[in-house]
Write a structure and sequence with these properties.
Chain A: It is found in: Cell inner membrane; Cell membrane. The complex is a heterodimer of chains A (448) and B (337). With 448 residues, chain A is mainly alpha-helical. Chain A has 14 helices and six strands. Chain B is globular. Classes of the chains: A mainly alpha (448), B mainly alpha (337).
Chain lengths: 448, 337
């Protein structure tokens, strides 16, 4: 394989591994604040129990996000030196503001949030929780501003082949940014909703009837029932924005080859790029025109308008269907669970097992969504400004291949360890404390 | 945005900010990594837990200075960033693997299912710290020689790798002298005594080799009157080494007096060594190839970062001090409540 492909696989592997953890911490920070505020308001110990359990998941996820994030900051230079040379004047300040306004805030106040409960007044501890949650969200803000700028760049001019900023407001609030930010924040909240519900269901199925388990199960189910349908609407708006600014991406999502009216919604097909047609197509007539143009005759752009300048069709097509498929499952299970909880006060075993099975479904949907938007931007790294091939560096393929194997091994091990550990924490429930620097987990007396 | 300081000064300001971040990283994560290197010498489970508790609340924020340092290189000197990181590609990858292992081992060891699994994460913690320390030293050696190839250059890089690991072990031991008590503190004093002279030798060797790299650096140090003005640097270094070594001989003192001194002495040594390097290489960001002015980003981009940095850095320093106060004193077991 050539160095460019290896560099892309390596970067994609790292960024895919990394995004799993911010996806959890962004929303979980606010959920922890919710638990803390409920505890402050009600003095009910179940909320503090919930806080103590979930802060462990938060700490573990945060550490995973930090170490893979540091790797990212180096891989910009090792894998894509041309990126910073060409658009560093734009990307640089956005990344710098992320470090300055988010990283230090999170990293410093996380210690107070984790270990400071007995060392600082209650309001300082609550304040630390606020600042950590705010920091994770600020981090998402800057990163999505940069990513969106790469999708829909504006507010700059090219001088001697190098991008120079002319309007920072336009750069940050570029056309796709508000939609992408809303979509990602909601994705994070949905991921956490199913993580909360799934692990709580697991604890319940294992006979853990602590009040905190019921409380976190309810929190997760309510979040899922409200946010999953909302995400459908936000995602649709995001798609319409993409149609306006990146029509080739939408054409790949729909596997629509010719620009025409009355385009069907392709449910399944094997897109064949050599023949430029779909095999084994199953489609709903007029569906795509209705969704994208709100009219059965609406004209939808086709891939043939962008020959040589559109992304690979199959990965975008299938990633989109994976994302939407999981989204539909989330809406169904979220609403069903909410209605059952409301009507019967408890969930049947089958539904609980369904929630357990969906524990990490948010990860799959989020990754699939990122694949749609990132592969969908190809062959560009920055739309219309810089192609991915132009940004690659001079590192020999052998070095990239060797380090790729190393990274993949580490990531596979850590991901396994993470999932095993999270489920084990849930199995042990709240009777065990496990924090860095303590002796072996000590059993505490369980209070009924 | 129009630059609010003269454009030709911006690269200097950013070089200073970057140098400060890297120095802070080396000192702060240096003691974290050093404690990781010393972990195998702990006596039993409880002592290992206490050593990790002594750095638990700090490591994450400490490591963030690396992100800021490398981030400033990336955003302020993008040409140099690409050049340096592609030259050091494998060492960077190994360092990252080390930092990944070290960082997650903190969490996983505490949440391990049984003692055997916990020991495995302890080993990952040590291996990660060692790998990170050695690769950072290796990168330092390669950088000083301007990425020269050949057996002699690689031998120098290997020596720098060993030297930095020992220096980290020293500052880690000095941190433990401050932050622990009883048997562990006495053992840490012993570790510091063992590490201090090998570290001194490392400082001497690197300082002796650096002026030989190029005539430019040689003249920086040995032309008059500069030589006289620079004399305090080696003199202060030697005095500090002797002072700390004789203090360590008498520690622990009654009432745990002067417990902070070995650590702050180590910080001063790191700073002096770093100042010497900065003097040797300024204004080059890639030795003898690329100056900070040649490598710098556009002034309007540097200005907007600087505006943010000048506003935010004091805030960061303020809440770092707050965190150090909250977790001040001797390390205790860490609990979530």
């Amino acid at each position: 394989m050539d160095a460019l492909i290896l560099a892309r696989i390596q970067f994609a592997a790292n960024i895919s591994f990394h995004i799993l953890f911010p996806t959890i911490t962004i929303a979980l920070g606010w959920v922890l604040l919710f638990f803390k505020l409920r505890f402050n308001a009600t003095a009910d110990d179940k909320w503090m129990d919930a806080y103590r359990f979930w802060v462990k998941v938060f700490a573990l996820s945060f550490a995973m996000g930090v170490v893979s994030g540091i790797t990212m900051s180096f891989q910009f230079g090792t894998n894509w030196p041309g990126y910073m040379e060409r658009v560093g004047n734009i990307a640089g300040p956005l990344l710098a503001y992320e470090v300055l306004t988010a990283f230090f805030l999170e990293a410093t106040f996380l210690s107070i949030m984790l270990f400071g409960f007995r060392r600082v007044p209650g309001w300082v501890h609550t304040g630390a929780t606020v600042l950590v949650a705010f920091g994770t969200t600020m981090s998402a803000f800057w990163i999505l501003a940069l990513n969106s700028w790469m999708q829909t760049p504006q507010g700059f001019e090219m001088r001697d082949g190098i991008a120079h900023a002319t309007d920072w407001w336009a750069i940050v609030f570029n056309p796709s940014f508000p939609y992408r930010l809303a979509h990602m924040l909601t994705a994070s909240a949905l991921t956490v909703a199913f993580l909360l519900a799934g692990l709580s269901a697991w604890r319940w199925l294992r006979g853990d009837r602590a009040p905190a388990v019921a409380a976190t199960l309810r929190t997760g189910v309510v979040m899922a029932a409200v946010l999953a349908p909302a995400q459908l609407f936000i995602g649709d708006q995001h798609g319409l924005n993409t149609l306006e600014h990146q029509p080739a991406k939408v054409a790949a999502i729909e596997a629509n080859w010719q620009t025409r009216g009355g385009v069907p919604l392709v449910l399944f097909a094997l897109p064949d790029e050599a023949a430029r047609e779909n095999r084994f197509e199953v489609a709903i007539p007029y569906g795509a025109s209705l969704i994208l143009r709100h009219s059965p005759d609406g004209v939808v752009p086709g891939l043939d308008d962008f020959v040589g300048r559109h992304p690979p069709v199959a990965p975008v097509f299938f990633a989109f269907r994976t994302m939407v498929g999981i989204g539909v499952l989330m809406i169904g299970l979220g609403l069903l669970s909410a209605v059952l909880l409301w009507r019967r006060g408890a969930l049947p075993r089958l539904v609980l097992w369904g929630l357990v099975g969906m524990t990490f479904s948010g990860w799959v949907a989020t990754l699939a969504g990122w694949y749609v938007t990132e592969i969908g931007r190809q062959p560009w790294l920055v739309t219309g400004v810089l192609t991915t091939a132009q940004a690659a560096g001079p590192v020999p393929a052998g070095n990239i291949g060797a380090t790729l194997v190393m990274y993949l091994t580490i990531y596979a091990l850590l991901l396994t360890a993470y999932v095993v550990t999270v489920f084990r924490l849930a199995s042990r429930g709240r009777i065990v404390e496990a924090v860095p620097g303590t002796a072996m987990p000590v059993s505490k007396v369980a209070t009924p | 945005m129009t630059p609010f300081i003269p454009a030709e000064w911006l690269p200097v300001v950013f070089a200073a900010l970057m140098a400060l971040s890297i120095l802070l990283y080396v000192v702060l994560d240096g003691f974290d990594l050093g404690v990781g290197l010393l972990l195998p010498r702990a006596d039993g489970e409880a002592e290992r837990d206490r050593m990790i508790a002594a750095i638990g609340p700090f490591w994450d924020a400490n490591e963030t200075w690396l992100v800021l340092g490398i981030g400033l290189l990336l955003v302020a000197f993008p040409m140099a960033h690409g050049l340096i990181l592609t030259q050091l590609y494998l060492a960077v990858a190994l360092m990252l693997a080390g930092l990944i292992l070290r960082g997650v081992a903190f969490e996983f060891r505490a949440k391990a299912g049984d003692l055997k699994e916990k020991r495995r994460w302890d080993h990952a913690f040590v291996a990660g710290s060692l790998l990170a320390a050695l690769s950072q030293g290796w990168m330092l050696g390669r950088y000083i020689l301007g990425f020269a190839e050949g057996p002699a250059a690689l031998a120098f890089a290997a020596m720098a790798a060993g030297g930095l690991a020992i220096a980290y072990a020293f500052i880690g031991a000095a941190w433990l002298v401050w932050r622990t008590e009883g048997d562990l503190q006495r053992r840490a004093i012993g570790w510091a005594r063992q590490a201090i002279w090998p570290m001194g030798l490392g400082i001497l060797l690197v300082s002796a080799v650096t002026p030989l790299v190029s005539t430019r650096i040689f003249e920086r140090w040995f032309a008059l009157p500069d030589m006289l003005l620079l004399a305090p640097l080696p003199v202060a270094t030697a005095a500090l080494l002797l002072g700390i070594a004789s203090l360590l001989k008498h520690m622990p003192l009654p009432d745990d007096a002067l417990r902070r001194l070995p650590f702050w002495g180590a910080v001063a040594l790191f700073a002096l060594f770093f100042a010497g390097l900065a003097w040797s290489f300024f204004p080059f960001v890639v030795p003898d190839r690329l100056t900070i002015w040649q490598a710098a980003s556009a002034p309007e981009s540097l200005s907007i970062i600087l505006a943010g940095a000048l506003f935010v850095l004091p805030v960061i320093l303020a809440y770092t001090v707050l965190a150090w106060r909250v977790f001040g004193g001797k390390a205790r077991d860490l609990t979530y409540y």
